[in-house]
From TrEMBL:
Protein name: Enoyl reductase (ER) domain-containing protein
Residue ranges occupied by any Enoyl reductase (ER) domain in the UniProt entry: 10-363
GO molecular function terms noted in the UniProt entry: oxidoreductase activity; zinc ion binding
Keywords: Metal-binding, Oxidoreductase, Zinc
Source organism per UniProt: Psychromicrobium lacuslunae
Length: 365
């Protein structure tokens, strides 16, 4: 079928709105009419690393319009949030950790994948030629997407899908890093290094879990101000003061928990130094270089550092949980969303790169 897509022609060229051909759904796939798609920094990293035309997008939300013969639990008319691909059969998937699926790399076509289904077939073509797609199993910078049923998470009808779209990746990652991995107690002190879409989702999740001591570290004055409005107890400008010293001052010697969303080695080192004894640091940002760790600090003070993909979540369980928190008013992700028409994708990308008041740009289809 003919669909509209925002195509990335190359690693450096702006997105172009074009008509492309979308394959029919296979027996275990569903066809989704997109309503909204979040823009994530991962999309921009993948664009920068791409070697040719590709349709990106991995925070889609929309309405199911057709299902394959082997699909269960979904039907036309269902509202769905699209998330990362996972096989559902390997040991990690069976243990409830699909973010670490042994087949995740090929299912998600992330960072250099061929842009095809795992059987080598294409979901997208342009003028008869294969167009790289299946990014995170969805390529949802498009009006329609064909996805495996594992990628589509049913949500209640009637909700604002532009608000829910980023639950498929960014919001899920930040919230999951707090609720599933760090698991702070209400009396804990959490420091979040970098408050973009992921960091703000972490902040909101921490507040929904009852935390009162949440420190945001970010060079953007607009984002520090918003962090305080959304429940942070303090916000630090790392360019204006020593963040580690200030955190220790605010937290009786150091934070019990820290989250890094930046992937910047120097920031990770600061995050680790800001922890008190037996503190825990989780990193979720794509690494921007090699990390040098003070092993004696880890050993002598019982600190831990770990990575986390997609908030260590099982999307079929965790996305509905986050939707419920949002419906009850305890996870106000609607305050993070700025809407753009899909034709404005390049303006949305530019706004995200500026790192100011636009936290989560979302395209409307």
């Amino acid at each position: 079928m003919k669909v509209t897509a925002a195509v990335s022609p190359s690693s450096t060229a702006p997105f172009v709105i074009e008509e492309v051909d979308l394959d029919e759904p296979r027996p275990e796939e569903v066809l989704v009419k997109l309503v909204a798609t979040g823009i994530c920094h991962t999309d921009l990293h993948a664009k920068a690393w791409s070697s040719g035309p590709i349709v990106l997008g991995h925070e889609g939300a929309g309405i199911v319009i057709a299902v394959g013969a082997a699909v269960s639990g979904l039907m036309p008319g269902d509202s769905v949030v699209l998330t990362f691909g996972h096989c559902g059969q390997c040991g990690e998937c069976r243990r409830g950790a699909p973010a670490y699926c042994r087949h995740g790399a090929e299912l998600n076509n992330a960072f250099g994948g061929p842009g095809l289904r795992t059987d080598g077939s294409a979901t997208l073509r342009k003028s008869g030629e294969v167009l790289a797609g299946s990014f995170f199993g969805q390529s949802s910078f498009a009006s329609h997407s064909v996805v495996h049923q594992n990628n589509a998470i049913k949500v209640p009808d009637g909700l604002d899908l532009a608000v829910l779209a980023a639950l498929g990746c960014g919001f899920q990652t930040g919230a999951g890093a707090v609720l599933n991995v760090l698991q702070p107690l209400p009396e804990s002190t959490l420091v979040i290094f970098g408050v973009g879409g992921v960091g703000f989702a972490a902040l909101l999740a921490a507040r929904s879990a009852g935390l009162l001591n949440i420190i945001a570290v970010d060079p953007s004055a607009e984002r520090r101000e918003l962090a305080l409005l959304l429940g942070a107890s303090a916000a630090i400008d790392p360019l204006a003061e020593d963040a580690v010293s200030k955190i220790r001052e605010l937290s009786d010697g150091g934070a019990s928990h820290a989250l890094d969303t930046t992937g910047v080695p120097q920031v990770l080192s600061s995050a680790l130094s800001s922890l008190r004894r037996r503190g825990k640091l989780v990193m979720v940002g794509i690494p921007q270089g090699p990390l040098s760790v003070d092993a004696m600090d880890l050993l002598a003070h019982g600190k831990t550092i770990s990575g986390s993909l997609e908030g260590d979540s099982d999307p079929k369980v965790f996305i509905p949980e986050l939707v419920g928190r949002h419906q009850r008013g305890g996870f106000s992700i609607d305050q993070l969303v700025t809407r753009y028409q899909y034709q404005e994708i390049n303006q949305a990308v530019a706004a995200q790169k500026r790192g100011g008041s636009v936290i989560k740009p979302v395209l409307l289809w």
